[in-house]
Amino acid sequence: MGRIHTDTRRMDDLLASVTSDLLGDVPQDFGDNTIRVERILLEMVRPDPVQPRRVLPESIHLRFHQNQITPTQALRELVQIVQIAARHRGRPFNNLLELLPNADNERDDEPTVTLTPEEQLLRDLVNLAITIRDDGQVNPLTVVDVSQGVTRLFRIETGERRYWATWLLRDFIPNYTGDGMIPCIIIPANRSSIFRQAKENTARSGLTAVALARQAALLLLTVHGYEIPAYAVGNDFFRQALDLDLRAKREYTDMILSAMGGIKRGQFSYIKGLLRLSDEAFELADRHAIEEARLRYVTGVASEYHAEIVRQIIDFNLSAKQVKELCEGDDMHDTKDESEVISPSALKLAKVTQAISSTTPKELARALMRQEGDADIARARLQAMRKLISETERYLTSD
Amino acid sequence: MTRSFVFTNHKGGVGKSTSATNIALGMVHLLRRANAANPRVLIIDTDSQGHASLVTTGRKDYGADDSLYTVLMADRTNAPQTLLNCVIQSQWDADLHVLPASPMLEGAERELMGVAGAPYRLADPLSKIVTQYTAVIIDTRPSFSLMTEMGLLAATDAIVPVEPRYLETVGLTSVIKKINDIREGWRHPALRVSGLLVTKMDSRIRGHNHLLAEVKAHPILGKLLVGVIPANEAVSYAHSNHQSLFTYNPAAPASKAYMQVVASLVRYLLTGGE
């Protein structure tokens, strides 16, 4: 057996000799780091497990990303969920195409049917699938090349609905004549950005408040150096962002607020606060696309009540004001000692006592007149105040 | 566009597997050196003897679940995914991938006889994943069987390795004619004969020099000549060590000659097959 040569320097010399001789007039650096469009086998594309915008219901989403079910099985489960929901509401279907609205059968005098979120989702997917079948997929997905070794894989940055619609078309809808490929804009892994994904999300309509909360969490976690996993994560992962804020990373504040759709800091804080919702409430609010304004009050009550309040929001279509009243009722507050609870009006009055030195009686009288518009009412207010002050003094003594 | 090179000749022992495997590895190295975003190259071994699989992966006992045979027998819809599942990383380089052959390929031809679309059982699934590679190298068996036809139908460029001996060069025109028949008969206009590779050239033998001169002087064959690989002991030593020639001895004359061929093929890739 001959002597084994493993001199890498000599290999380099050999490569150098041909690159200079034969590749001389060809561009030497053809590192194609540009964005390109290709048709990719559907099986080689996977949705992003930590994408804030969820397409499938949470339980299916998690099992799919834990590789417990295939895309076809995931869709079959969704179809089964919808079939059960639809049967309960007296509109059973056997064929997915029956989900589509039929203009010929519609009557003006029929009441408008309210679909469950799953029914709406499946109807939208079927609609999209039919559009793709009839008109082709005009808008490619955006994917990131995350291939490792022989495992060729592309992670979806945008276009997860089109991905599921194509699977639905391939496996559930008749007359599919495609070749199992899907057009994709491929972004090199080193150019993948969570900020671009966030901007793409917020630029599109239909991003729920819960999805925004997940997105806010992802951005905060990213700029604080947390590693974003490539597998499905539970809500606790996103909740880590509750301990983080924009102040600690001022240099990223503008970028984050811009990626969140140009919102203000206060709004960002409210959105992030939704991460406090219990898992069940979080999922319900996401499925039913409840706005942040109606959810913010829910986070102020004990977590065991979250799901129930969200259910009431859904069932009774409560307004933000009604939710506020519901949440600020005494029953569901944290079970703190009542003596520790101080109402906001008491705190306001206590603050007023500090401003007495800078106020003259005449000024106060004028202010009362402007507020009440009537001298008798103003006098009554002062008397009530006097009574309150004298009683307050009693408590100070006894304390 | 990815180009698929099929190394074919119905004569055995002309260096098809040696050329296919070493050129594939050379391409990976050269593409990487040129900072190509995708330097991956796929070798498809269609020869049931599995020599290309053996030297690049260290084994040739692939079977019904992990080889080209699996792909050919897969359901048409699942064939692309099956192909992806069967591709493995070579021991030579992380970016050199192999779809290994299996001894079961011998029987595959019989099993596929009469199956509609059988000749496209490699081309169809390969077309779905081919863009994942910058180049595909297909090694064929030394005969014009169904398996070789599958290789030709899956390729864009045919390279014919040939020894500089009288009978081999006489048979060359029949090889080229057969490739043209596939192109016309199977309506595969993308396939063309892109290279003639003279292997095992011994310049001490007068007959070799004479035939090489004739090939060079031939109006068609001369233009097709992409390289002349000298006969070199390093080749067999590299084989027995399951190493590439470039790793075993980059300074060997055959290594240098193969690298020249690799450079011209990479240049061909870069210029879009012009």
3D architecture notes:
The complex is a heterodimer of chains A (399) and B (274). Chain A has 399 residues and is an alpha/beta fold. Chain A starts with 7 loop residues before the first helix and ends with a helix. Chain A has 17 helices and five strands. Chain A has three domains: 36-104 and 113-192, Conserved hypothetical protein from pyrococcus furiosus pfu- 392566-001, ParB domain, CATH 3.90.1530.30; 195-334, Arc Repressor Mutant, subunit A; 358-399. With 274 residues, chain B is of the alpha/beta class. Chain B has one domain (3-270): Rossmann fold (3-Layer(aba) Sandwich). Helices cover 47% and strands 16% of the residues of chain B. Chain B contains 13 helices and eight strands. In chain B, helix 8 links the parallel strand 6 and strand 7 (192-201). Chains A and B meet through helix 1 and strand 1 of A and helix 1, helix 4, strand 3, helix 11 and helix 12 of B.
Please state the second-level CATH architecture of chain B.
3-Layer(aba) Sandwich
Largest beta sheet of chain A, briefly?
5 strands, mixed
Largest sheet of chain B: 8 strands, mixed
Shape of chain B: globular
Gap from first CA to last CA of chain B? 12 Å
Tertiary shape of chain A: extended
CATH class of chain B: Alpha Beta
The topology string of helices and strands of chain A comes to HEEHHHEEHEHHHHHHHHHHHH
Radius of gyration of chain B: 17 Å
Widest sheet: strand ordering of chain A: 1-5-3-4-2
Estimate percent helicity of chain B.
40-55%
Poorly predicted residue ranges of chain B:
none
Number of contiguous helices of chain B: 13
